[in-house]
Amino acid sequence: MQKPELLCTAANLDEIHHLINAGVDAINIGHEQFGLRVSGNFSREETEKAIQICHEHHVKVYISTNALFHNGQLEELESYLRFLAALHADAIIFGEPTVLMLARKVAPNLPLHWNPEMLCTNVETINYWGTKGATRAYLARELNMDSILEIKEDAEIEIQVQVFGPTCIFQSRRDLVASYQNYLGENNDSPGKEKRLYLKEEKRQEVCYPVYEDRNGTNILSAEDLCILEHLDELIDGGIDSFQIEGILRTTEELVKIVTVFRKAIDSYCLDPQTYRTQIAGWMEQLRAIQPAKRPLTTGFYFKEQVF
Amino acid sequence: MTRGPIMNKPELLAPAGNLEKLKFAIQYGANAVYIGGQSLGLRANADNFSFAEMKEATDFAHHHGAKVFVATNIIAHNEDLHEVDQFMKNIEKAGIDAIIVADPALIERTKQAAPSVELHLSTQQSTTSWPSVQFWKEEGVSRVVLAREVSLQEIREIKKHVDIEIETFIHGAMCIAYSGRCVLSNHFTARDSNRGGCSQSCRWQYDMFSELQEWERNDTPFTMSSKDLCMIEHLPELIDAGVDSFKIEGRMKSIHYVATVTNQYRRAIDAYCANPDQYVFKKEWLEEISKAAHRSMTTGFFYGTPDEKDLLYIEREDFPAFDFAGLVLDYDEEKQIVTLQQRNKISIGDTVEFFGPTMERFTWKVEQMWNEKDETINTAPHAMMTVKMKLERPVKANDMMRKQK
Asked: Which end of chain A, N or C, is more open, meaning fewer C-beta atoms within 10 Å of its C-beta?
């Protein structure tokens, strides 16, 4: 059976060491200067070190360059792409064509993964980006299981799905949290993710959406953590190429436990589907034990009806 | 050196929620209008056009030298793609000039199925840099509608680097997120925002709290509601930057709104292009807009990233100060009697205001009214009823009458 790749975000070099030991096949890192919602900022030195360590362990490194770029950022982006190409990063992740245009010029051999968040929703568009050079697409987290499997059947490039963690539900270029604090006349130092701010709808006070700012603006994350562990078999049978765990807002210790569970689950299913089934309850128990209060584990939109 | 008139005037592009609004948008000065079809658009709840209505729309528009664009700007799912070819063939047959499209799958299919339809890249693609504009140009789109996050200076740079039509929003409501990069609706109401189901959850009220400190509920809720874009005071800069098309938002807005807003931009563009050196902004243009618009206004991202002054917190939306009270059907110069179609209650003693595509607005006190049977009436309470009124100043069919609330 074709084993999917187990991919996890990393916040720093130390976390990378632990994730490698826990069994990841690939990691996703970046810097907020170029990437959206990175879990930690890797300097150039750290990026170089990360790629070196990972490659020693045959672990791949994908770098986020999925911001929406403005004219003023083109020079620094071009320089960054040259740098990543020289380091033999295994792929860069892009969300819009600015990166494509610059990469063609300065880093034509860097593989490209297309991740425009909620905009990756049909197979023809995925294959379109394939003709433009993308080797992989990271599907919108709002797709359901049937759509995911249907897309995979006709996709001409690799398909990645999220299997665990929060999803991005909103991105604004505005600094909405700082604006609010200014409006209230409150002292505000940058409302980054370490401030652990949440939004609650007026009518549903039990649901808490993480919100924070970085240099790309304001980000809002889902109130629940996606966890598709109980349905991994369907995704593996469907031939999905890569499973991503989003580690933003989690400690290294928690993340290692999550990766360990998914590593076991994938290996177990690929070895013996029967054994896999008997262990799911136990694994879910382990995941629930480290889940923050007020953040339910759910299957997100995998089995949810949406209308329009 | 003095400048002569500007010959290549930018296009003024107005929303048209239905055929009636389309006709008024054009009569009040739009060079082009955009509409929605019954699928593939982002306003699932709007009063969208059938293909037969599209034909009627293009007949009317082309007769008046105006163009019609169809917004087909969903982010498609596999199942949406099956109908695309036929839809595009139908709109091509209906004489539609261009589609406003966000998803490359639709671009590719339209190139094959309806090659004469021009492709305008929707703002939903959030195009923010000139290499990105260049990319889309190479893909065959004839126009890019820039992201609302692009500044005036960036527009100038884009126009310098890429030879392509650039369209920007100049007026109306704005997404607070990068357009398309928001699924609040999907999470809060299970409605897919990028397929037309947006429930505008950003404008709801929220509480913000920190996990790290004792939470106190704040009296002023957190919200993500932008003031409306209004660039009427800055048109010369936009025209000089080389923007090819100025877009007014609002397919769900009223006839009164569309006619009023479109007409003020028409006047400002014409005044500047006729004589750029002598151009003076007229305060009355903004006053007119404020009679139909209901949110306070901002210049968005044109001069930098907006902050708290550009957001609506506890100031809830005011309703416009004026109601659309009547549409002029006819005017009898000899008898000085106007025939109106009632659009809001009119009574003897009301002070009303008449305005039209080219006339100077004036106020009038209602003194005598008659119904269809020429019976004297004191009030006209029924929507769409025909009313006659004594009016000593001449007006024309399709002029409008509004009334202060």
From this structure: N
Q: Which of B231, B2, B9, B183 is nearest to A142 (CA)?
A: B183
Q: A223 CB near a chain B CB, below 8 Å? A: yes
Residue A44 sits at the vertex; the CA angle it makes with A43 and A50, to the nearest 5 degrees, is 85
ipTM of the complex in this document: 0.96
What's the rounded Cα separation, in Å, for the pair B127 and B144?
8
Residue A169 binned pLDDT confidence (cut-offs 50, 70, 90): very high
CA torsion, ordered B272, B275, B276, B281, to nearest 10 deg:
-50
Angle between helices A123-131 and A145-154 (to 10 degrees): 40
B315 or A183, greater pLDDT: A183
pLDDT over 90 at B317, yes or no: no
User: Which residues on B lie below 8 Å from A174 (Cβ)?
Assistant: 176, 305-307
Q: Which CATH architecture has domain A5-167+223-298?
A: Alpha-Beta Barrel (3.20)
Residue B78 has its nearest CB partner, among A150, A305, A307, at A150
Is the domain spanning B322-404 CATH 2.40.50.140? The answer is no
Chain A residues inside the 8 Å CB shell of B76: 121-122, 124-125
The letter for the amino acid at A16 is: I
**Domain boundaries, given as residue ranges, for chain B:** 11-183+224-312, 322-404
Chain A partners within 8 Å of B196 (Cβ): 308
Q: Which of A285-289, B85-89, B194-198 has the lowest mean pLDDT?
A: B194-198
Query: Reduced to 3 states, what is the DSSP secondary structure of residue B162?
Result: coil
Residue ranges of the domains in chain A?
5-167+223-298, 172-217
Confidence at residue B209, expressed as pLDDT on a 0 to 100 scale:
86
B176: its two tokens: 């607070």
- Residue A19, Cα to own-chain centre: how many angstroms? 15
The pairing of strands A225-227 and A158-165 is antiparallel
Buried b (16+ CB within 10 A) or exposed e, B46-60: bebbeeebbbebbeb
Looking only at the bridges linking them, the beta strands covering A112-114 and A91-94 are parallel
- Identify the band that residue B45 occupies on the pLDDT scale cut at 50, 70 and 90: low
CA distances from B63 to A210, B12, B16, B66, B67 (A): 53, 17, 17, 7, 10
Whether CATH 3.30.420.200 fits B11-183+224-312 = no
pLDDT band at A2 (very low <50, low <70, confident <90, very high): confident
The nearest CA of chain A is from the CA of B225 a distance in Å of: 10
Token pair belonging to A62: 């994908």
CB-facing half-sphere around the CA of B58: CA atoms within 13 A:
18
DSSP letter for A191, please: -
List, as one string, the DSSP characters of B288-334: HHHHH--S-EE-TTTTS---GGGEESSSPPPPPSEEEEEEEEEEETT
Helices (H) and strands (E) in chain A, counts: 10, 14
Residue in A200, A223, A307 closest to B207 by CB = A200
Residues of A in contact with B156 (CB under 8 A): none
